[in-house]
Amino acid sequence: MDSEKIITELTFKAVRSSGAGGQNVNKVSSKVVLSFDLQASKCLTDEEKTLLSEKLKTKLTSDAVLILNCDEDRSQLKNKEIVIKRFLKLLKNALIVPKKRKPTKIPRSVIEKRIKEKRTTSEIKQNRKRPDV
């Protein structure tokens, strides 16, 4: 995955930010909406596309477009930088393939120790009973 090439495929849209902020909110379009078309991407391989579509299926639209937005800052430029960092981090984490778990064998000493403890507990409980007359 080449991050510089992927950034060129992103489309940005500036929107008026919602919420508190006074009169500035009504005039300035500081919220940035990032959209990335996963299937139309030329930088990603087919395997990466399938992996991303599987891992990010809750974040993708029905036509496989990832939409992220940011309105944390009053500056449009800072919001754009924040949303790009968030996007790259999201892709990087989604492309990590987890290692396959190797089931480990229980050591013989552990099994013997457990059986010995069961035996001693059983003997203790047997000693609590009333002796037969």
TrEMBL record:
InterPro entries on file: Pep_chain_release_fac_I, Pep_chain_release_fac_I_sf
Coiled coil residues, start to end: none
GO biological process: rescue of stalled ribosome
PROSITE patterns per record: RF_PROK_I
A Pfam family matched in the record: RF-1
Prokaryotic-type class I peptide chain release factors domain mapped to chain residues: 16-32
Keywords: Hydrolase
Statement: the UniProt record of this protein carries the keyword DNA-binding: no
GO MF terms held by the record: peptidyl-tRNA hydrolase activity; ribosome binding; translation release factor activity
UniProt entry tagged with the keyword Hydrolase: yes
NCBIfam families in UniProt: PRK09256.1
Family recorded in the similarity comment: Belongs to the prokaryotic/mitochondrial release factor family.
Protein's name in the database: Aminoacyl-tRNA hydrolase
Organism (species): Flavobacterium orientale
